[in-house]
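Re: the multi-chain job from yesterday

Posting the exact lines I submitted so nobody has to dig through the queue logs.
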Amino acid sequence: MEHGNLLNWLIFLPTIAAVLCLIVPSNRAAKLIAVVATGLTLLLSLGLFQHFAWWGTAAGDVFGTGYGQKLYEVTKLAWITLGDGARAPKIEYFVGADGLSFPLILLTTVVTFLACLASWNIEHWKINKGIRGYFCLFLLLETGMLGVFCSLDFFLFYIFWEVMLLPMYFLIGVWGGPRKEYAAIKFFIYTLVGSVLMLVVLLAFYFYAPVGLRTFSLIELANNASIQDAFKAATFLGFRFAPFMFVLLYIGFAIKVPVFPFHTWLPDAHVEAPTPISMILAGILLKMGAYGLLRISYPILPTAGMWASYALGLLGLVNIIYGALCAMAQTDFKRLVAYSSISHMGYVLLGIAIMTPAGLQGAMFQVMAHGISSPMCFFLVGVIYDRAHHREINRFGGLWLSMPVYGSLATLGFFASLGLPGLCGFIGEFWVLVATFSAQAVWPWMTWAKPFAVIAATGVILTAGYILWMIQRVYLGPQREEYKGFRDATTREIVILAPFAALALLLGILPDQALFRFMNGTLDQITALFR
Amino acid sequence: MNVPTPNTWLPSADELHLFSPEFVLVGTIVAVLVVPLLVGRRPEVPALIAVLGCFVGLVATWAVSAQVADGPQAGMVPPSAGATPMLLADRFSVFYQLLLFLALGLITWLWLIGVQKRNGTDSTAERGGPEFFVLLLTSALGMMLMVSSLNLLVLIIAIETASLPSYALVASDKRSRLGAEAALKYVMFGATASAIMIYGVSLLYGRFGTLDLSVIASALDARYAELRSTVATFAPVTHVGVTDAVFWLGLAALGVGIIFKIAAVPMHYWCPDVFQGAPTEVTTWLSVASKAAGVGLLLRIVSLFTVTGPWPPPNLPPAVAGHTYAMTVAVLVGILAAVTCTVGNLAALRQENVKRILAYSSIAHAGYMMMAAAIIAAPSAASGVSAPTYNAGMAAVIAYLFVYLLMNVGAFGATALVVWQTGTDHLSAFTGLGRRAPWVALPLAVCLFSLVGLPPLGGFTAKWYLLLALGKSAATQPWLWVLVVVAVINTAISLYYYVRIIRQMYLRDDAALPAFRPPGGGVALVSACAIILLLLGTLWFSPLGRRAQALASDVYARPPAAHAELSHPM
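And the result, structure tokens for all chains:
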């Protein structure tokens, strides 16, 4: 463990800025503070490269020999200790970064900064009141998100997980579209149901560990053999402990991802949320579900993961196919992108469910790829919504002619989402499909893996179907009279889109140098826990 | 039996000192009655006296807390042969005195703002300050005694002392028809509950031949030992003999009275009507103090059943062990708690009146607190092997009550500010409050989110300690996990109705509604509550738990009969 304060600054710099936003006199100053703070957070997060950028050294030097052996920028402080001396519940402020959290921390700072830029025209929104409040909540949201990715204490994780809810509720509920109230409360209640189930698991993990070893540390829970043995042997209200806890956790994370029966909040929230909030929702919040599975469910309850792998793989498949079919049926542009998120997250679920090193790598790559392409798509939708004030796909046409620069960037973004080779989406999907197809080499009992891979592959065709059809209807075809006068993308819009486009290209062309090598070490350590 | 002449019994100075907070309260009541006769009936006068009384009372409580630092003390032993103490002073009762004085101070503050606000709009509003405070302080006295009593007779007197002034307080706004109706409902319900309770006490007296709780506790101990020794022939069916049926019936009837005070299911029907009809200050008082005292009393009664031997008893098969008194009481209280918080939360979902929403919310919170009572009754392995240094259930309730006081004073205080301004407590009165009065809306939102139990606010801290205590005891009583699950699911349900108020304040607006300036004192009150809640959820997370543990550290189950002998050699 290497101690450091970088993560503390990352987490709490936005909080400080949020307070500043409330007390500065003018809206413009609040905007400026928000942009500077998110920009500064982005720059600070780049500092993590000093630990993870390795080209000459061996992987072992960077990632250590086992899960949680090598953590960077760790802060570990006793936060809550209570009575009973040495046996007291010890809750720690324990943050640190490893190969699993590092890419997601970077993704968070990048997407948040760009979403903050996307909020710059807030004065021209339909609801443009309370601008200082908006940026204050926006910054608090960033604190919550970064806190989730950085914390290694389950209790702390839970706190940040909940802290994120409040700002999101208001950001959708106040600044959203016509059905904002419904969408906001739906998001809030769904997520809270998931997180209170997590609270039960949190307590159970603590009290089911042997008395002297009780801890909330996620690393310790996964690594300590006595705790693991106790979890495997225990029963909870008559059920086997590990599967029961796994299911509770899974529901919590599945709501966030979202997995098929729990997904209905997502289209509503995405459609009603303002563009920058949709970007964050799709780019980061959905990733928390996958992160939670990889950080908590699988390392701590690996046996339950195997027990459930068939069902989880099936859910992943349903997500892929069902999401794609729903996306195909949409006439609202934003709803289409929202359902495409469900479809794309299905690959993540499938990759995780098969529990092989390649599967986890593919899943994480897909997480990052989707984290880049989906905010870009949402912003692309936002750009034309700003001009046309509607999102009916069938009413558009020939936009490329009036907006050439925007049209080119849009095509790139949607192709990245589609999974065109050379762009980020391709690697993730391909990796997951290959891993699923060959999963039986690692787990001989996984006889269902090959058929699953075949079925999942059809999802790629469906994806191509709805995206190409959409591009044809919106960007191609004859130019329509009412869209002739549309301004091409402004400098601000290009500045927001260009980094996404560059990252999509970079990840598509150099997947190893740009991403795999930063996280594979830790992912392999997690899969080593499964044996 | 020699009949004592009245003048032979004079408690010692030490003994009287133990109950100085109660005496301070009595003195304040007298002063509130007398002083306005001398200086005139201005509303500030009784309020000032009440605040002064609270301060003196806090000092007195401080002194008592030093006296009980080494362990519980009991007092007020009548001089007849074999008599036992009537009242108890320990850290738990000291905590209640602190809580009640704090609540009294905050209510007085709120009342004073209300009087000024109403005098501004309606000059004929004569609020009867002295009468109000006499009633308020008397009910506080009753509540203090409720938590301190060691004798069923004192218990009845305490409950009645707390209840009777409350009925009148509800109707203290003489022009309010709704208030009068609420008071009538409250009286009818309360009188019935009292009658049932007194009947129950008489049955208990018939069963045990004593009104003394510590004697009843030892009798139960003896019965438990008897059950254990006859294990060979013991069958669960025979153990509910006639005498036990009387015991259970008496206990259930006594429980009716306690549950009425807590407003737990099934004795909760009065709560929404009374809370809606009463003036908001009184509603605040009832929701916090009355409920807190009821919960405290429940803990005291339930702790009678705590099994002091090892658990599960070595010579008892588990199926039989499950039928002992302690387990039965624990399971019953647990079921009642689960039902109470579920019913409260579900009923709140469709309310349109903010005071009714908060009334149902208080029913739900009573349910959460009653879960702690289930912990106390549930026998734990630790009690026989190595005594825990503190009582986890008690500590959880202490922390919960403190946070609950702040949340409710904040929420009802902000509601009162809106009601005084708009004249209605319907949900629509809160429309656009975030714009119209941002410094009322923001603290109210904080208090409401805290009531949900979202981090990083005090409400989460309280709920966390409660769940932690449940989880801890679940090591030996796995069924307590059911309560954990019920509690967290209820948290998710409750979100909806709290957020309805927040939605009305922030997500909806009506440009026709003007902004208004709330009284500065009111804003200060609700803001202080909100800020403390925020601190309790972050920096004071750990200190709150430690303080609560310290207060619960010597609150073991039994009323200290032995201590009474020691501290009263005469």
